[in-house]
Design brief:
Distance between the termini: 71 Å
Number of strands: 0
Low-confidence stretches: none
Shape: flat
Radius of gyration: 28 Å
Mean pLDDT: 78
């Protein structure tokens, strides 16, 4: 019994020390009331606190104004390039023979070989 009390007391002491040394949360419900947005708008966790998503990062970086930027504005504030080059998605010289794409039942080897040698766009 004495051994159990010593173990229990030690565990209680360690728990108390960990709680005393734990960092305080930076997510405040006042921010949600200020912006009219739920905590999950800025934070990765739906309950708030912890790491911020892009909208939360942009909101803090812009000085915590009255409104959280939408995702496009947040990404632009964070320096993400949002332009897309259509050439990345356009086939200009198809080199795939049509028969390589046709698979007869039990004859998947030609397509498998072709995919294994395919180097991408």
């Amino acid at each position: 019994m004495k051994h159990f009390l010593i173990m229990f007391g030690s565990a209680l002491l360690v728990t108390a020390l960990l709680l005393a040394l734990a960092p305080t949360a930076q997510a405040l419900p006042e921010y949600s009331a200020q912006t009219g947005e739920p905590c999950a708008t800025c934070h990765v966790s739906p309950s708030g606190g912890g790491p911020r998503g892009p909208r939360g990062q942009a909101w803090v970086a812009s000085g915590k104004p009255g409104a959280v930027p939408d995702l496009i504005a947040a990404l632009e504030l964070l320096g993400v390039e949002l332009s897309v080059d259509p050439a990345y998605f356009t086939v200009t010289d198809p080199q795939v023979p049509a028969e390589a794409l046709e698979i007869a039942p039990g004859k998947g080897q030609p397509l498998y070989r072709w995919l294994g040698n395919y180097e991408g766009n």
